[in-house]
Amino acid sequence: MIELDEIDRRLLSALARDATQSASALGRRFGLSQPAAWRRIRRLQEAGAIRGRRLRLNAEALGFGVTVFLGVKLARKGRVSLEDFERAVSAIPEVQTVEHILGLYDYRLRVVARDLADFERVLRRRIMTLPGAGEVEANVLLSEERRPGPL
Fold first, then answer.
1. d(Cα 61, Cα 111) in Å, to the nearest integer?
2. Which CATH topology does 66-140 take?
3. Per-domain residue ranges for the chain?
4. pTM of the model
5. Choices 1.25.40.10, 1.10.357.10, 1.10.10.10, 2.40.40.20: CATH for 6-46
6. What pLDDT is recorded for position 148?
């Protein structure tokens, strides 16, 4: 675990909200020179506190108006391997995230679709036909509030 001071925490919070900010802008904001801010960010990256910077697409603006979280319990018959299921489900373009979880379900998937009819098609033709797919529970996303993280 990396030791963080208050400036590190503030840098991480600022980058979690907007990862496109430059070291120069962050340095001005937190009273650091550009090289000092860059060195801190680099240290946080090397220590693994920053795993990368991602572009967040607006699914709705791209025509995907429905987001559904699926709980998937693998069927015990045939004993499909977790790797086979993960590989197959990851190949479905509408599946945004695949999370192996502990609890009632084995996996939690985040699936986007154009509308509910499109989601039904993805569910019936792609997800339910996966090797090992068993019981499924769907939860439609109504709204989402994005939080910057634990800092």
1. 16
2. Alpha-Beta Plaits (3.30.70)
3. 6-46, 66-140
4. 0.74
5. 1.10.10.10
6. 64
HSE toward the beta carbon, residue 42, CA cutoff 13 A: 7
Yes or no: say if 45 and 39 are a contact pair by the CB < 8 Å rule.
no
Q: Which residues contact 56 (CB under 8 A, 6 or more apart)?
A: none
Output the pLDDT for position 101: 96
Which residues of the chain fall below pLDDT 50? Answer: none
Name residue 67's amino acid.
Answer: T
Q: Same fold for the domain at 6-46 and the one at 66-140?
A: no
DSSP the chain: -----HHHHHHHHHHHH-TT--HHHHHHHHT--HHHHHHHHHHHHHTTS---------TTTTT--EEEEEEEEEPSTT---HHHHHHHHHT-TTEEEEEE-SSS-SEEEEEEESSHHHHHHHIIIIITTSTTEEEEEEEE-----------
CA distance 30 to 137: 46
